[in-house]
Amino acid sequence: MFYGINENKLIAIVSMNEKVIVVENLTKKFGDFTAVDHISFDVHKGEIFGFLGANGAGKTTAMRMLSGLSMPTSGKAMVAGFDVYRENEKIKRNIGYMSQKFSLYEDLTVRENIRFYAGIYGMSSHFIKEKTGQVLGELHLIAEGDKLVKSLPLGWKQKLAFSVAIFHEPRIVFLDEPTGGVDPVTRREFWHMIYEAAASGITVFVTTHYMDEAEYCDRVSIMVDGRIDALDTPQQLKKTYAAGSMDEVFLKLARKATRAAD
Amino acid sequence: MTAVKVNNIVKTYGKKKEITALSDISFSVSKGELFGIIGPDGAGKTSLFRILTTLLLADKGGATVDGFDVVKDYKAIRQRVGYMPGRFSLYQDLSVKENLDFFATIFNTSVEDNYELIKDIYSQIEPFKDRKAGKLSGGMKQKLALSCALIHRPSVLFLDEPTTGVDAVSRKEFWEMLKRLKEQGITILVSTPYMDEASMCDRVALIQAGKILSINTPQGIVGTFGKKLLAVKSNDMLRMLHDLKKSEEVQDVYPFGEYHHVVMRNDSKELLRSYLEQKGQSFELKETEPNIEDCFMALMKTS
Predict the structure, then answer these.
(1) Which CATH number goes with the domain that contains A57?
(2) What is the CATH number of domain B229-302?
(3) What is the dihedral of CA B226, B196, B49, B26, to 10 degrees?
(4) Which chain A residue shows the shortest CA-CA distance from B300?
(5) How does DSSP classify residue A68?
(6) A-chain residues within 8 Å CB-CB of B256?
(7) How distant is the Cα of B76 from the closest Cα of chain A, in angstroms?
(8) DSSP states of A18-62 as a string?
(9) In what order do the strands lie in the sheet with B187-192?
């Protein structure tokens, strides 16, 4: 059912060594404010990469640069093999994105949402038709296919939004607090979907405020004041910071922040 | 003394009343209590708060706040409650100070008269008092909204998901502020989707799909779990989960951070140990204390 942390899997991922995100000294300034300050890291194919940080640490700005929506001030970043400065349109075609705040059109039906998003990504109608049936089957939503999205419970919406975000089989999916406000049972079902996606080779880049979810990531980075202050497996981070849980690791690092939260 | 009393409230939405937001909810909150309403989005938390703050009418049932009826005495209630909605709803194009003055004036008071009450919170944003509210950071907006909700010294404070989307550090700080407010004798009803915040409350109501699953002290809720909770981990947590789901003796198993939590039908740790030993994977097994999230999931599955 659920994949969970798996050291063996991580070794396999890193040894395959196919890097789908490569970031070197990436920096973004707004006037004299440095929102993202020389961050560097790699993410491997099929990895679940947790991107943590306090509000205002620079997570959103960093994600916007990596998804081709915002031009960096300096530094380098390659996403899915494309350069964030010159090939940001290609990046957009090769990634999926889902956030807690905006995901689906409430006034469109389940099927219409799928058709709309898949159409934007240029999927053929044959592909859309075939895969819609498969996705709705997996989600047990076949009976709800023609209902408006707004009539679905939140947990179902979020699971559907995730399926829509990876419908075009992107190389990377960015998830911005995908489980905020979701009940604890559905939250675990959602993570099961994340693990299935990762197992199929999609790289998952995810932010969360639930510290138990940080434990489910292969590796976790923690941003503080625009910098990445820690990056390792959850197990190693707990060892390094002599902490019993990821919550403690996070508090130890984030309390050092001097910048006001956004 | 009872500060809030809710009697059999029902609230539905839709032309045919097809969506039930609250289905026959009853509870009461004592004066000076810090009462948590804990549940996921869509549980009915906001509908409940809007009914209690006289902004929404229930279909059935009734409620009183400070002894006043939420329908007949709505004006009296509006004078004496503070309400911080889930969505930031101050005037974005007024400055910090202008917002605070505005709310004080509406309630026929002044910032000076009640400064003591908000000092602890407001002093943190006072250096930015001339900044437009719309230009504040999320944490500062939250502090301004709380200051505005308090400026008329309400007897009951309603905070609808004040910590949603807020990071773990700021959440802890926010709860510390609430504890200090409670010492001032203000009754506080606070809703949250974060189960771990239950421990900060005097009592909590766990709410899901419009129904209350349980009302108790946090310790009381944990005390009703009723089963021995076991925690296991190994190097291959997926395989471990598959193995555990296959066992007839396992009543429930789910990932919980670093561990999988397991409830055995007969509560036997040794039976689980021997089952896992047969599976040939090295593992760590221990007993653990259930927390509110364990209880919430158990209640969700039985209700």
Answers:
(1) 3.40.50.300
(2) 3.30.70
(3) 10
(4) A185
(5) T
(6) 212
(7) 33
(8) -EEEEEEEEEEEETTEEEEEEEEEEEETT-EEEEEE-TTSSHHHH
(9) B81-84, B156-160, B187-192, B34-38, B203-208, B211-216
In a domain, A37, yes or no: yes
Nearest CA in chain A to B143: A261
Instruction: Give the global pTM.
Output: 0.87
Burial A10-42 (b: 16+ CB within 10 A, else e): beebeeeeebbbebeebbbeeeeebbbbebebb
pLDDT of B75 strictly over 70: yes
Contact A181 B139 (CB under 8 A): no
Helix (H, G, I), strand (E, B) or coil at A7: helix
B10 within 8 A of B22, measured Cβ to Cβ: yes
Place of tokens 């109608």: A125
CB contact B137 to A (< 8 Å): yes
| Tokens, residue B53 | 């703050």
Q: Give the CATH H-level superfamily of domain B2-217.
A: P-loop containing nucleotide triphosphate hydrolases (3.40.50.300)
Distances (CA, A) of B108 to B83, B100, B199: 17, 12, 36
Closest in B41, B255, B300 to A2, CB measured: B255
Q: What is the pLDDT of residues A50-84, one digit of tens each?
A: 999 988 889 989 999 999 999 999 999 999 999 99
Domain membership of residue A22 (yes or no) is: yes
Number of neighbours of residue A43 by Cβ within 10 angstroms? 24
Domain ranges of chain B: 2-217, 229-302
ipTM of the complex: 0.82
CA nearest to A38, candidates A245, A162, A202, A223: A223
Q: Shortest Cα distance from A82 to chain B (angstroms)?
A: 31
- Please state the domain count of chain A: 1
Q: Which domain holds residue A80?
A: 7-103+172-254
For the cut 90, the answer to whether the pLDDT of residue B258 exceeds it is no
Q: How far is CA A75 from the centre of its chain?
A: 22
